[in-house]
Every structure is written in structure tokens, then in C-alpha cells.
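Margin note from the TA: students keep mixing up input and output lines. Inputs are the sequences; the output is the structure of the whole complex. Example:
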Amino acid sequence: MVTMSDVARVADVSASTVSHVINKTRKVLPDTEKAVLAAIEATGYWGDGIARSLRKGTTETIGLAMSAISNPYFGDVVHAIEQSVSKAGYSLLLADTHDDPAREKRAVKDLLSHRVDAMIVAPSSDPEAILDTLSKRSIPTVLIDRVPDEIRTGMDAIGVINDEPTAKLVDHLAQLGHTRIATITSRTGLTTTTERLHGYWTGIDRNGLARDPDLVRVGDDGTGEAVELAVAELLALSAPPTAIVMGNNQVTIATMAALRNRRMSVPADIALVAFDDFPWADLFHPRLTTMSQPVEELGAQAVKMLLERLDNRDLPSRHIRLEPTFMHRESCGCNEG
Amino acid sequence: MVTMSDVARVADVSASTVSHVINKTRKVLPDTEKAVLAAIEATGYWGDGIARSLRKGTTETIGLAMSAISNPYFGDVVHAIEQSVSKAGYSLLLADTHDDPAREKRAVKDLLSHRVDAMIVAPSSDPEAILDTLSKRSIPTVLIDRVPDEIRTGMDAIGVINDEPTAKLVDHLAQLGHTRIATITSRTGLTTTTERLHGYWTGIDRNGLARDPDLVRVGDDGTGEAVELAVAELLALSAPPTAIVMGNNQVTIATMAALRNRRMSVPADIALVAFDDFPWADLFHPRLTTMSQPVEELGAQAVKMLLERLDNRDLPSRHIRLEPTFMHRESCGCNEG
DNA sequence: TTCTCAATCGTATGCGCAATCGAAAGCGCA
DNA sequence: TGCGCTTTCGATTGCGCATACGATTGAGAA
């Protein structure tokens, strides 16, 4: 590796001058500067971020701990985050939590020992431990997607509104005459799951429908087997549902696949609405009616908050809730464009 | 931050003993070890990866430079990579190239100054410069997805076979009686694009069809506008195509959207086959006939090669080509399962 | 007692850099 | 010539760690 002193030797100056030229941190005679620049070019000097980080105490790196890769919904979120992060001159260090508390712990520890300057975390179902260490070490953190009820000081959070929009989904089905409306939720314990389920019940209640626990199934993410089972059980009910509210992206795909396997036609045999949109929701058969999350904005705002906190650690902690958009298409049984 | 010497002070030993206990790098009296462990617990010592990296000259980090996030096709590849990488005890540092040579250069430089131990790169259309610096600094590298004709020594590469499978796609359409078969390609300059286009011509030729340059359009990734234009031009031809071979995932989605906007029915009005599969290709209307890439294996094998090279730098460089699988569904005009 | 040797641990160094401190040189002015 | 001041830059230090090397101890042999 070519180091600063190599460059210094070639340029016939001291290493400290090289450093100052690179960082523009003090005035240098034009000739000297030129010589240094030439020496850098000649030696192919690249700089050592590790050494710089050790010295400066900052890594210019932001850690991202979420099921970023295993969960397609997060794709666009990560995309937006990466955009903003790299525009701000930071790098992104990725650690996949697989939405599992144990792996989440490892992921955060990993990011910590890599000394990330700040962190974006989509908390798992049991994030207490990591939130604790994070706040103890007072690492600037923003929680994304899943927003806990109480947030530790110095932690920001951003997510979407889950309850009312889910209730609206139920409203829509109820207005179409459905009385047996089921829901297949995402992973138990996530705040999004809880909130959407709450919204589901709100919808059931305010439309004067019967509260039937049999109509609520957990779809768990990942394999899709839980959804397969959920659909089977739902259809085997003595009074099976005529409509389903799906809790997230993965549940939606698995549910549609399960229904297709049973040769059930949507929306003729059963109506479907989903929380979470797809860019290609238009291309599905039938075209999916969804509650679409502003995923890009979610990511962009998360980074914005983080940068602001990096700039001023004493900022009061903030919660932001973004509004989803109703995408009215065909799977609900309507025929809108 | 709590450092080693803090721990040492609490445990009443020297810092080097703490280090040795942590790394199990020399024998230590059981009592001493216990004291150190207790002190670590008590102080909440976490270790500083940065300092360790500087000292050891290795970061336990693997850099990934590809349009990982902006291109959904790569989702599963990244997923597989992350799995293997973290299982091997490494972290993943992400840098999105957006498939643009300039940004690719910045991304690689970024990874380099973060001192990644090795790199996985999906080369852009003009990767000469970065391949050069990579091989000059002799960083273990594996090229993924796009496999250049000539590879520098010490660089491995892995991708799928593109030409013959594309020709097979054309074969299939020709056997169904199509004589006007168009193709919409991905970004110009990528080796995958070139190879698939080559396969397209092979298919045209060996089925005795007329070579018509008008039937070949570039779909460029990203916005989907190029595809929109391509479809418009194709349909405006005096003898428009009756079938289209789509060059990749993004082109496929954009093409289907463009066709849908024109109220054209697939496969009745026009047949469609695609290179690249989707996990939910079954849910599209109509169900897509595709050439499916073994994306997970692509990622897993890439990491495997990298780890092997990390283990032994003198390995001869290897190319691996994986075989895609024909997924026969309905958009081609057949009615298989 | 003195010496040897093994077992256990501490001291010192340097990884590559940023930043502090102070040295050297040039200038004007008395 | 001598003083103060500015401009330009070099020597040095320490970030937190791993590790080469040396110091200390006690047991056993001579």
C-alpha cells in the first residue's frame, strides 16, 4: 500500500503537508500543492479510510439494520436510503436482521464494532435489548417502519399510519356488501402488524359486522407456508370469508398463489385488498387494490432526520407518520380504471 | 468509548492480556481470564473494529459494487450474497453503481478507501478503468452477472449462459409459427445485453427467419421511457412483430405496462417471452413464459469463489457459467400448466 | 544456593492518519 | 542590526489495538 509518507517522500515535503493539501486544512504555497498533487497522481495514492477513521473518530458510514434484503417491500426503502446517504457523502453498511431478534442483535453489534456514525433500524418484534445498547452508547438512530410506542430520548422514528388506512380497507369491502371479511397478518409482534390488526377491528366494528376471531390468521413472512395454511383454514370455515385484507406484500403474494392453486377466481369467488403496493400491481391478475406506502419518502425522510441529528445531537426526538394512499383497482370487485 | 485499557484497569491486568483473552491468542490463567471477562461485562466493552483493522490490515468486510438496489433483479442475488458473506463472518459494504461508469468509479473508490478485503462487482458498460485499478491493487475480486471476454489474472467471474438460452426462446416462438419476432434489449454495452442479442440473431437465423434490424430495440433500464418508445415504434412498423423477446426484468415490466396501456392482449394480440423470471411470474396476467436465472446460486457461488481466493491468492482465475431454466407458461401463446 | 526452564504476563512499538505545536524564513520598521 | 509579525511548513503525538519481545515468578535440578 502507498501511504502518505510515500507521497511525502516523492513530493519532497513532510507528511503533514500532504495531509493538509488533501484536506485543504491549511494554506499551502501553490508550488508545494502542485508538487503534492503530482506525487499523489504518480504514486496512485488512495488514502486509508481506516486510519483516518481511527484518528478522527468518525467513519462517514451509516449502518442499516433491517430485513433489507430478505423482504422485497424494503427494496424501494433501501433504494431511497442509499440515494440520500450517498448524496450526503456517507457510505452504507448493511446488516440483515431477517426480522429475527437474535440476528438483529448480532447485526447491530456488527455495525457498532464497525463504528458507524449513525444507524437506521427497522426494529424486530423484540427490540428492547438493542434499543437499550443503542441509546446507552448514544448513537444517533432513527427507527424506521416499525414505530414503538415510547421512544428513547435521542431516537427518531418514522413510519406510516397503519390503523385508520386498514380500517378504510375494511370500510371499502363492507360497502361492497361483504360481511365475512378475513385478514391475514404479517409477523406477530411487529408494531405494524399490531396497528394494522387494530385498524382491522376498528373497521369491523364501525361497519356493524360481527367480531369473529376465526377470521384473523397470522401469515408470518418468509416461506409462505403460514399463508398457505391460513388460506386453507379460512376456506374450510363453515362460513368462509368472502373477502380478505392482506397485511403486507409477502402475505399478498403468498395468498394470491394459494388462491390460484385452488383455482379460485378473484374477485368473483373472493375479494382481495392489500396493505402495501407493488410497482407492477397493475400487471397482476386481477389488478390489485391496495393501500400504498410512500416507501421512497420513508427512506428519504429517515436519512434527512438522521443527518439533522448528526448535525445537532440535542435535537428533541421526533416521530413522523406518513400517510398511505388508496390505490383503487380491481381485486376488490370494483372496476375502476 | 470504553477501550481495552479501561477494561485492563478494572481487571487489574495489562491491556495486552485483555487482548489475548479476547482473541484467545495465548494461554491465560483461568482466574485472570475470568477477571477480564467480568471486567468486559462490567464496562460494556465492545471492541473497536476500526483500530483492529488498522493494526491487522484487514477489515473483515466485503465490498459489493452493483446496481444492487436500483435493479430489482439483483434483489435475490444480493440476498444470497449477504447470506453467504455473513455466514463466513464478514460484513457487506454496499455501493450502488446505478450501472453508470462514472458512479461505478466512485463506488469502487469508496469501497477501496474503506479497505474492503475483497470485492464483488457487476461491471457496468465501461468497466476498464476500475478493473484496472482493482487488478493493480490486487484486490481479490469476482465479477458477477456480466462476464467480460478477457479477465485479468486473479479475477474470477460468474454469470449465466446468455446466447443459447435466448436462441431457444426464439426457437419456441418460431415453432409456434411466428415470423416477425422482435426483441427489446437491456442497456447497451453490458455483456449480458450483447450476448443475449447475439443469441437472438442465432435464433432468427437458424429458424430461417428474415434478419430485420427494425425489430431490435434498446429498452435501457431505469425509467421505462425507452421501452415505451420501443413498443410504440415496433407497433408502428408496416409489418409489426407478432412476438417480443424481452431482454431482462425491467424491460419485461415496462413492456407489459406499455402493452396494457394500448389495450393489447397477450398472447392473443402479441406473444411475449422474457429473459429473467420473477418469483411471482405466476401471478401476472398472462402467466409469463421466461428463461429463469439461478440467481441465488449466482450469489452463493460468487461468495464461495471469493472466499476460496481469499484463502489462496494464487488460485488460477476461474469463469463459471450457470445454466438458466426455461419456465414454460402462457404468455408465449401455449397453455401449459 | 544457584541455575535452568516453563509458565504467565507486562512493556513497548507501530499500523496510517489528523491535528497541535513550534521552528524557520522572509518582511517591514525603528 | 535587532525586533516583531506573518507566512509556510516540519516534527511530534496519539487514536485503539495486536503482537514481538522481555520481565517476573516459582518449581525442580544440580
